[in-house]
Amino acid sequence: MEYLRARHGKALMILGYVQTVKCRKPILSKLLKLLERTF
User: Fold this and answer.
1) How far apart are CA 18 and CA 12, in angstroms?
2) Distance between CA 10 and CA 7 in Å, rounded?
3) Which pLDDT band holds residue 1 (cuts at 50, 70, 90)?
4) CA atoms in the 13 A half-sphere facing the CB of 13
5) Please, which domain of life does this record's source organism belong to (predicted)?
6) Rounded distance, CA 21 to CA 28, Å?
7) Which of 4, 23, 28 is nearest to 15 (CA)?
8) Smallest Cα–Cα separation from 32: which of 24, 17, 19?
């Protein structure tokens, strides 16, 4: 039971990480474009 809970927690962590990355991707791409322009 503990093993399953640990695995589930890990899966939730990964899902949360993916969600934050998806949310931040547009912001990151905008920053990259700005950097490309400045250099």
Assistant:
1) 10
2) 5
3) low
4) 6
5) Bacteria
6) 9
7) 23
8) 24
Q: What angle do CA 33, 34, 39 make, to 5 degrees?
A: 100
Q: How far apart are CA 30 and CA 37, in angstroms?
A: 11
Residue 22, phi-psi category: left (phi > 0), alpha (psi -120 to 50), beta (remainder): alpha
Which residue type sits at 24?
Answer: R
pLDDT in tens, 4-29: 788 888 888 888 888 888 878 888 88
